[in-house]
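Quick one before lunch.
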Amino acid sequence: MIKLNNISKYYPAGFGKTYVLRNISLEIGEGEFVSIMGPSGSGKSTLLHILGLLEAASEGEYLFMDSPVQKLNEKKRTELHRNAIGFVFQAYHLIDELTVYENIETPLLYKGMKSSERKSKVADILDRFNIVGKKDLFPSQLSGGQQQLVGVARAIVSEPKVIFADEPTGNLHSEQADDIMKLFKELNEKDGVTIVQVTHSEKNAAYGERIIKLKDGWLDV
Ligand code: ADP
Ligand code: ADP
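Model of the adenosine-5'-diphosphate complex:
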């Protein structure tokens, strides 16, 4: 599903370059639940953004579902992103002006899905996540845990192959964090969704099957 060959990422610095990721080669198979760990500044978010097609690598090759990512044009990359990837952020990234219902519907609008189909998909997710009663509320009216539940609902509504999550429970109490991890576990086991999360928490990582460790931009093996 995911294959990185010697991926590096650098930023220009003076007359030289500062490397943030170096020679990363790894594979993540369909249906895996993987955690990326490492100290602050070790390149975890950068790696996740490259994997999730939000950022380009500077060097190396990335194959996502057998597509060579660097060789795709922006239109193809956006299409792949919309159809195959769901993203969950630490600070939720919900749209404050939209209701819970509208936030969850957004990815389906981008996909150009017709209204009746959108309605039924959003209704299914609201029901499954037990948040039907919250559908007309705005994000500011929800607790952090509920907001992240909506964040996950929005990530999953378009039925992606992979969910990338960047410290999804970083702003949550441990009980709320466990709820989100249990949800990931269920999406992984029942729906076969591949999960790749960045986390500082050993407890969160224990919900997954494998840990990828980074140190100073290198794979720490
Ligand atoms: P982590 O998620 O492990 O904390 P990041 O991937 O966020 O690490 O960042 C890794 C390193 O890359 C940090 O030293 C950070 O300062 C640097 N970095 C991230 N984005 C940029 C950028 N746009 N320009 C320059 N340096 C950056
Ligand atoms: P999104 O809309 O999902 O944030 P885009 O595909 O619009 O991502 O990319 C934003 C910018 O980053 C574009 O200018 C694009 O050229 C560049 N970019 C993003 N991902 C890649 C990638 N994997 N390879 C090359 N360039 C990329």
